[in-house]
Amino acid sequence: MGLQPFQPLTGREGLSDTDMVRDVFEASYRRLVGQLYGVCGDLTEAEEVVAEAFARAVQHQRTFVHLDNPEAWLRTVAVNVSRTRFRWRRLAAARGGDEVRHPALDDDRLVLIAALRKLPAAQREAIALHYLADLPIHEVAAATGSPVGTVKARLSRGRAALAVLLADIYDSSEEARHG
Hints:
The chain is mostly helical and 179 residues long. The chain has helices at residues 17-40, 43-59, 61-64, 70-94, 107-117, 121-132, 137-144, 148-178. The N and C termini lie far apart (37 Å).
């Protein structure tokens, strides 16, 4: 994506709380949506949970602007919102479902996202945050509220499950092309 990591809010003492939140938004929104797309598997959902995280930041802006890593806070809030919304989406899908929207991605990335959607939510979150968002394991643990050992186990199980899912998908597509 080429986005630079968020820089701390130091040296911005003259800015209002609202301006500081706006600065975080401008620096982090696209990156957070990209990270949460991997977690949610749906672009609209990712945009909505990140927007909800920023809405909560605005509600608590006096506290938010003093955080050491506001982007990590936003990511944690967005992951938690996505978990709640996932439960509601499952209920909605049982009643008729919503259409999933994806950004313009190459076929391999779309296949990966489709395979991620088949994993249990905890494994999908760990894989997406660690591999797609490029977060170190301790930050994945902080974002998901899980111990580091649990994140490592989820990553291991998730990689194994993805290997099977992706092998099945690619084997099926090879058979379709040649058979």
